[in-house]
């Protein structure tokens, strides 16, 4: 009995010395966490030898303990390792971030209205161009859009994505190009 009393007084003296460098806030956090752990243990009294934390218990403990430095965490008497508490906090933040950053709608975002109008204008002004030629012209302008997107826009508007070129021969093509050059004002 006397030996046990001496042991308890000796260990409690060191426990009191451990509390001296801690701030009041750290002590309050430790008290709250220890009380919560006691509540968890009382709730599971007689169930299983392994302590199981509910998700809300994990969130509460993680929210309290993440404000403490890691060296203070290691000195606390916890039912779980400090790394586990930090993992709980990371998971909590990850779920919170995933919930707030969820896209409003699924799938590919719609094409910008001005690009859609430009595609339709290019096709209406150049009736012989197919969707691949329109895509090439847009790429040269620095507009990033896929050929399949151009094709879908044309199909939605009821335009033929790859119009038939009515017997255009190489000679016809050269003649049209020469006429365009002769019509320019910059030639002397």
In words, what does this structure look like?
The chain has helices at 2-19, 24-43, 55-65, 70-75, 82-100, 113-125, 131-140, 147-156, 170-183. It is mainly alpha-helical. The chain folds into 2 domains: 15-100, no CATH class; 106-162. The chain starts with a helix and ends in a 5-residue tail after the last helix. The model has no long low-confidence stretch (mean pLDDT 80).
User: What gap, in angstroms, lies between the N and C termini?
Assistant: 120 Å
The topology string of helices and strands comes to HHHHHHHHH
Poorly predicted residue ranges:
none
Rg is: 37 Å
Helix content: 55-70%
Number of E strands:
0
User: Which structural class fits the helix and strand makeup?
Assistant: mainly alpha
Task: Domain count, please report it.
Answer: 2
Average the pLDDT over all residues and give the rounded result. Answer: 80
Overall shape? rod-shaped
Question: DSSP strand (E) fraction?
Answer: under 5%
Number of helices: 9
Question: In short, what is this structure?
Answer:
With 188 residues, this protein is mostly helical.
What is the topology?
Elements: H1 2-19, H2 24-43, H3 55-65, H4 70-75, H5 82-100, H6 113-125, H7 131-140, H8 147-156, H9 170-183
Helix pairs in contact: 2-3, 3-5, 7-8
